[in-house]
Write a structure and sequence with these properties.
Number of strands of chain B: 2
CATH topology of chain B: ABC transporter involved in vitamin B12 uptake, BtuC
Number of domains of chain B: 1
Strand order of the largest sheet of chain A: 6-9-10-3-11-12
Largest sheet of chain B: 2 strands, antiparallel
Number of domains of chain A: 3
Number of strands of chain A: 21
Oligomer: heterodimer
Number of helices of chain A: 18
CATH class of the largest domain in chain A: Alpha Beta
Bound molecules: adenosine-5'-triphosphate, magnesium ion
CATH architecture of chain B: Orthogonal Bundle
CATH architecture of the largest domain in chain A: 3-Layer(aba) Sandwich
CATH superfamily of the largest domain in chain A: P-loop containing nucleotide triphosphate hydrolases
Number of helices of chain B: 14
Strand content of chain A: 15-25%
CATH topology of the largest domain in chain A: Rossmann fold
Helix content of chain B: over 70%
Shape of chain A: globular
CATH class of chain B: Mainly Alpha
Radius of gyration of chain A: 24 Å
Strand content of chain B: under 5%
Radius of gyration of chain B: 21 Å
Distance between the termini of chain B: 48 Å
Order of helices and strands of chain B: HHHHHHEHHHHEHHHH
Amino acid sequence: MTLPFLQITGLNKSYATPVLENTHLDISAGKVHALMGANGAGKTTLCNIICGITPADSGYMQRLGRPYQPDSILDAHHAGIRMVMQELNLIADLTVAENLFFERLPTRYGILNLEQLHTDAATLLHTVGINELSPSQKVGDLGIGQQQLLEIARALALPCQLLILDEPTAALSDPQVDLLFNNIKRLTAAGTAILYISHRMEEIKRIADDISVLRDGHTVFSGSAEIVSTQTLISHMAAPLDESAQGETTPAKTKPALRLRGIGRNERLRGIDLDIQYGEILGIAGLMGSGRTELLRAIYGADQINEGKIYPDVDKQPLKLKSPVDAVAHGIGLIPEDRKQQGVFLTQSIRFNVSFLSLNRLTNRWGWIDRVGEHKVIQQQIEALSIKCDSLDQPAASLSGGNQQKLSIARWLIRDCPILLFDEPTRGVDIHTKSQIYGLLRAQAAAGKAVVVVSSENSELTGLSDRIAVMSNGFLTATFEQGDWTSELITAAAFRGFDAARQSVHDK
Amino acid sequence: MLIRIADFLGRDFLGLVLVLCVLIVFFGLSSDYFFTALTFATMANQLPALLVVAVGMTFVLIIAGIDLSVGSVMALSGALLGFVLVELQWSIPYAIIACLSLGLLCGFGNGFVVARWGIPSFIVTLGMLEIARGGAYLVTGSQTLFIGSKVQWISAPLPLLSVSSGFVAAMIVVILGQIMLSRTVFGRHMIAVGSNDEAVRLSGISVRSIRVKVFCLAGFLAGVGGLFQVGYLQSADPNAGVGLELSAIAAVVIGGTSLAGGRGSVINTLLGVLIIAVLQTGLAQIGASEPSKRVITGVVIIAAVIVDVLRHRSGGIARYFKAFRRTP
Ligand SMILES: Nc1ncnc2c1ncn2[C@@H]1O[C@H](COP(=O)(O)OP(=O)(O)OP(=O)(O)O)[C@@H](O)[C@H]1O
Ligand SMILES: [Mg+2]
């Protein structure tokens, strides 16, 4: 039997409570090792320990049979170990090229050699197969999926023996996932080991050679991917869900909530007509960069639209939405895609994050916040979304990625807005909680609210929506009623916008 | 109940109280005069102006801004107070209203420019520092206006209490400020703007109006400071409060408020002000020269910030004591 590339035994780590307990993991060269587990199981903590970012309390790691004790990420790099972190760590004010080569920017006589930087970046992007990014774009202007791709490209830029990918696909759509998997196959063929973390079951089935499951910091399963069934894996990750609690909700009668007519914004949105209705879930599908986020932001007043109007419902004056303040006043809420930059207050407590939007409801006669009432409301949400935390006063930054995502959802769910726009609501959320969130969204729709969900996972949309609209290249290319859609039809529509753009150039 | 008090005051509170006690004991032992009623009465009378200005500064730092103009605005409002009392013979209530309104107006000017055009508050308030200082000279004709007994009541000891009404008013400002920060919606909004303003904007809450309000508050409190200062000196001095903004920032930062925004406490600012005041009075009494006083104060400020950073680093100080064992 050959020696594993990295052997981890008896690893322990505690913060307020134990996070990893006697964890073990063997990672073999040339294999894809999938690491699974519910939100807060300790996956990211384990990766951080492997990379020397967080110290372990005790435990032993061996790299190719030799003791391995990284004290910093540099030690990990020297040992041939690299990682794509769960949270994005790009510098928004620099360009794609500058971010790609940030630690080794090419210079000539001490002056930045932009020409070489851009050719290097173009070559790298080409090798990796990323065509949608150009080296001179500013990273701050990119969507979250594109930023994620950039992080992946950065990790692929240098050779390594172990590449850790912590939820690399959480914001990617199918073509980009394929692209990543091609790169992974290329690397494993060359003998690189991959540690792959994802909450998407079908990805694990496609790519994993070995699978380990973490549950509350214990390695509860480790074995070959071929012999284990999905059902076993799910039951290893968490206690089985109480299915009866969800049940089927009877669909409410729909009535118009918002009618968008000819919405346009800077080539990113072109002539969009769309009806949003109370009492239903409208899914918006599309590739990354197709304008889905822009559409939600335009409806929410976060970006100004150049053309078109938004009507509240039949026969009324168009809404004037100059800023999110106006949108909220009209009962529209947006849960943004980028939790780190736009959603969560990382340095503030869980209490602060969850109750932030509902404070006016929670004050007493003198304008004081009623702490007891606040506590009750928050506790409810923590249970409804299974947010894993030690106390309500813990800062949001100390929660696992998926649990941070739940914070920004919880905040809007208790706010009670009649129209809710969700941008990638389940990004980084584990399988069990995903179905809890679906249940909550359905309940919102059944209670007569209008729910709009943007997602890169088509299977999520088909399972959840009453109607699906598809965007492509800024156009709305199709809308499907329930039962009319197939995965092929959605994919075809997701590409159609590029033909439409070519057509309109021809016409001019 | 004790837990609730501790929760209200925050954990940093006890550390600061400890530092303050150590300083008081140290100066009490090294100087024969320190433990006298006179020392404390003098401090209590000098404090109010710095204290209210520092409370305003706390709010500004919490929203990740800075206000360099408070010292000049204080001088300008004080100058206006003296001018309307001496030259125009206004009655006290109207004069006070004029003084506070001018402070508020200066604060609004700062806040409006910062919020409307998104200009860093450092630059805007630096401009206001010059404008207000120049204004103070213009109003007073570059001379100290003597007012006299009309305003003496502000700093005269209250019957039964032996502290001035200015001091009492400043303490009320501290208490109201702390309640506003930790118990009201506006307080939460301030902290939110300081920790992630884009998230606040996308929550449908107007970041601009929060910024404007906070700068208004800082300006208004600088006006209150001007009132106290004039009461203490019994005259309006256009040179009053030079460098006061820096003492205020130092006091706030010693109190553990983060310059990066999103974290702060008014009660701890009070302790920061007391620490600076005790340090300066004490050093003067043990005969330290003016230059060495400044050196020592500077060292204390930097040390306080280092301690604060170490304590708030992830894992806290406990991390430094936890042995990292690797068992083969
Ligand atoms: N700095 C910290 N202080 C306190 N607790 C922490 C800290 N960092 C992580 N934790 C806790 O450790 C646990 C494991 O977190 P980790 O990020 O490893 O989870 P994860 O498996 O990656 O979850 P996810 O799927 O949501 O990304 C969580 O319960 C989290 O709250
Ligand atoms: Mg994680």
